[in-house]
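Hi everyone, sorry if this is the wrong subforum. Our group has a chain we'd like a structural model of before ordering constructs, and none of us has done structure prediction before. Sequence below.
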Amino acid sequence: MLPIRVGVFLLGVLVAGATASSAVQTFVVPRALPVRLSRLVFRSLRWVFSRSATSSRRGYAALDRRMAFYAPTSLLMLPAVWLALVLAAFAGMYWAVDGGSVWAAVETSGSSLLTLGFRHPGSRVTTLLSFAEAGSGIALLALLITYLPTIYGAFTRREVLVSQLEVRAGSPPWAVTMLQRYQLIGLLERSDELFERAEEWFADIEESHTSLGSLAFFRSPQPHRSWVTAAGTILDGAALSMAVVDVEGADNPHAALCIRSGYLALRRISDFFGLPYDPDPAPDDPISITREEFDSALSLLESVGTPLKADRDQAWRDFAGWRVNYDTVLLQLAALCLAPPAPWTTP
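Answer:
Right subforum, don't worry. Here is the predicted structure as tokens:
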């Protein structure tokens, strides 16, 4: 019997330690770390939510309403899972030290974890264990309380530019619509201001969406908005601006830096979620946009008087050479996050 008790005690220590490590890596460490327990919770609930959403016949609107609860629910489930594991781990340790029934050990663990105090541990060793368990429960709840303002602060920063794109690029957003409006209101030569700001936005979402992985699944307040479609619109706008627009300042360094900042951000977010892509694509590798779609987009730009470069073949090669850097990761993130339909972004 003694070897069994020793084994149960050591298993309890291992589970409690692994749970604490999972909480610290998820909430405290500012780095993209693969936390298996957190991913298991999110993947399990994603299966439940996506299965329920896709079973509806009401289309994307119903899917969006259901998936809006996915990330917050998963986030709140994490501490519940952690607390349950801590309770089970310490219950095993109480049973291993004091003996008695399993239910008595569970009662002692629950009383200590939730600081209810209705059951006193049976020995000095279990009393010390109850102190550690009570501290663990308070620490886990404190981590969640401090984590929520951080994640919602990052969410608010992200959504400012996302909402502004509706004014600039339509709903759903599209790079062609954005350049058309810029031409009509006389802002085409000043488009670098948006790309300069977007470079900072991409740097922000790279940091926040890898260190706070659940943030990628937080949906925008409006169902037709998404950080993924916003990223695709900005990147395509910068690529079209450099490849086809023929005005002074169109071929500017801010557009090039925006594209590089954008595809690096999307690639690192993809790395966090384990999405495959070619890290070094060739400029002539195939992309999801066809030449016919590209020519149709140029016709739309021409219809509002946008000055375009004469060599359309070279323009296509230039655009495809930029797009190939983010084409795969953009479409995969759109599928992962169930982004709303948008031209050139949603698969």
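For your construct planning: The radius of gyration is 26 Å. The CA atoms of residues 30 and 211 lie 5 Å apart.
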